[in-house]
Amino acid sequence: MIVYDSKKWNSLFKTIGRTYKESYNQQQLVKFICVNGLYATVVTMFNMHFLEDKLTIDTMFFSMLAFILSLFLVFRLNSAYDRWWEGRKAWGSLINNSRSLSMLLNAIIPTTDKSTRKFFAIHISNFTIALQWHLRSEVTKTLDNMIYTNARTVAEMEKMQHIPNAIVSKMHLKINELNEKEYVSEMEKMQLRNILEKLIDILGICERIKKTPIPFSHGTFIKLFILIYIFILPFGLVQAFEYLTIPAAMIMSFAMMGIELISEEIEDPFGMEANNLPTGSMSDTIRDNVYEIMGIKSIHVPEGLSKSGVLH
């Protein structure tokens, strides 16, 4: 996610420049505007120099089309932002529940039992790391970035098809073991299991967002509508704008295609694009908080902010 100060307008273009290389949205938009500018130039020059009577379309027609298109674009952007915001709320809940789980465990497990404390600190942290890469469909990176205590754990995780589920399952088993040893009472066991169930609920919410794309017909129709509108737009402007048709058409394409590209980028909030959620940074936050609460020294350094000002 791009980190910026919304109150500093004078740094807007500087931020855009710094983040351009990592922003698919910006790159595709610039390419589309350039192509549309070239097309508008051809149409304008053809009408101005090769036709006695300009080939034009009544502006009333464009007004009606623009009204209909604006309704679709508003709905498109709102539906995409709802997915992005729901993903952010889910990860906010993950942070809170991870802290609550570690605080409860810290109160239950004796400070002298370092191995059990380390077990839960590692597994809570690993759940967030595994969830981060699971939502990005990167199994190899999941295994590469997790925290391991021994070779047996590595071998176990390599066999798992759904690593986040496996991690929560191991914590359930550990809590049952502690209950049998009377480290954990039945009431405390229920409290811990409730929080673990909330982690699974968060996993389900994120998977639903990830695996339920915008319907193909819905997305395709809006794209075709935008392309048709932009294709015929110069014919409606050239009569009144003449050579100014070129910048006018480019500005209109910037506005309409920009909304579509933004919607495409944020409707999958868990990816690596510049405007996706910084799940990596949030995983670092959870790990550091959990290790601190459990009194375990962290063995990893947060990735933090990249040089371009983008958090992943």
Write the layout of secondary structure elements.
Blueprint: H1 12-19, H2 24-49, H3 59-108, H4 114-135, H5 139-145, H6 151-159, H7 163-180, H8 186-211, H9 216-241, H10 245-266, H11 279-294
Helix pairs in contact: 2-9, 2-10, 3-4, 3-8, 3-9, 3-10, 3-11, 4-5, 4-7, 4-11, 7-8, 9-10
Return Rg in Å.
26 Å
The pLDDT mean sits at 85
Strand content: under 5%
Distance between the termini: 6 Å
Q: What is the number of helices?
A: 11
Instruction: Please tell me what the overall shape is.
Output: elongated
Describe the structure in your own words.
There is one protein chain. This protein has 312 residues and is an all-alpha fold. The protein has eleven helices and no strands. It has helices at residues 12-19, 24-49, 59-108, 114-135, 139-145, 151-159, 163-180, 186-211, 216-241, 245-266, 279-294. Helix 2 packs antiparallel against helix 10 (245-266). 31% of the residues are buried.
